[in-house]
Amino acid sequence: MLAETAKHSERTPKSLDYSSFRLRSLTPHMGAEVLDLDLANPLDAQQSRDLDDAFRDWKVLVFRDQAISRDQHKAFGRHFGMLHSHPMHKVGARGKDPEILPVITTQDSAYTAGDGWHTDVTCDPIPPMCSILRIEETPDGGGGDTLFANMALAYDLLSDAMKTFLSGLTAVHDGALPYLGAYKIEPPPGGYPKSEHPVVTVHPESGERILYINSGFTSHIKGLTPRESRGLLAMLFDHIATTPRIHCRVQWAPHTVTLWDNRCTQHHAVWDYYPECRRGERVSVLDDVAPTGV
Ligand code: SIN
After folding, report:
1. N or C, where is the chain less crowded by C-beta within 10 Å?
2. 92 pLDDT more than 60
3. Distance between CA atoms of 44 and 67, rounded to whole angstroms?
4. Which of 267, 268, 278, 287 is catalytic?
5. What is the CB < 6 Å shell around ligand 1?
């Protein structure tokens, strides 16, 4: 079958040379490995500026051979803002530190967190702006990669008619969908968070338009009939999952750290390594503002 989208998106080539480090790109449009930066040390002023620029430009940054402690991981997260506490922490489904989300899959796991296309915690009124995952144990036989989707490119590749139609719409993002529906974890008193966000948002730093729905959390689109909402979301989820040119893939090794921008990406943790184990910890960072529409 031919590709659904023949259209090419005009994008300015991005820098691989920042003054304090170099990058090696994973794809031309998104994802880069950062060379020459040691996350065990506090960032100096130039490194901080370069990191912010590289993060805005590349959306997903991978740091290799970073044998950092939990405190150093959290300190790196605080470069971007205050740390987020995961809603599942309130039901005791996670570890002791509310700012650390253990990401552990063993042969006894009923599921692996994030094994489906999603953006982190979009059920929150102000979802976390970024997440930083540190993987310490990878399956011996390979696998356990994380796929990322560039949601600015996903938006660009839609037709002008579809972009116009989506622009004024609002979607509901419901924490019960993954946490209760998929993971079967009873909600805290008052239930899991549920929030409304525009279907098309504007990235606060790059100014790019972003397709902001995800199959993990988005339950429906307001103002449409249930059938219309289901049909539209199914088409958009299919566009995200089956357009490989919007994806990049991170292969983990012990002590790899990956930082991603939740405001313009989605990800999917691939559970292809059963019965082997994969272990790590994730830190997410609070945003200042809710996603804004066009
Ligand atoms: C997640 O944050 O959704 C988990 C990602 C992963 O385990 O690769």
Report:
1. N
2. no
3. 20
4. 267
5. 103, 113-114, 120, 131, 133, 146, 267, 269, 282
Judge contact between 264 and 62, C-beta under 8 A: no
The DSSP result for 149-198, as a single string, is EEHHHHHHTS-HHHHHHHHT-EEEEETHIIIIIIT--PPPTT-S-EEEEE
What is the spatial distance between Cα 128 and Cα 192, in angstroms, rounded to a whole number?
Answer: 16
Ligand 1 mean position to 246 CA, how many Å? 18
Establish whether 267 is a catalytic residue: yes
Atom 2 in ligand 1: which residue has the minimum CA distance? 114
Give the tokens for residue 270: 């691939």
The residue ranking higher by pLDDT, 189 or 231, is 231
Q: Determine the straight-line distance between the first and last CA of the chain, rounded to whole angstroms.
A: 34
* Strand ranges (E), the chain: 22-25, 32-35, 60-63, 101-105, 130-137, 146-150, 170-174, 194-198, 200-202, 209-211, 218-221, 247-250, 256-261, 265-269, 278-285
What is the token pair recorded at 74? 């959290």
Give exposure, 231-269, as e/b (b: 16+ Cβ within 10 Å): ebbeebbebbbebeebbbebebeebbbbbbbbbbbbbbb
| DSSP assignment letter at 36 | S
Structural domains of the chain in order of their starting residue, each with its CATH number: 2-285 (3.60.130.10)
The answer to whether residue 10 scores a pLDDT higher than 70 is: no
What is the CB neighbour count within 10 angstroms for residue 191? 13
Query: By alpha-carbon position, which residue is closest to atom 1 of ligand 1?
Result: 114
CA distance 271 to 207: 34
For residue 106, what pLDDT band results from cuts at 50, 70 and 90? very high
Report DSSP state, residue 114: T
Give yes or no for a contact between 285 and 130, defined as CB atoms under 8 angstroms apart. yes
- The verdict on pTM exceeding 0.70 is yes
Return the pLDDT at 113.
86
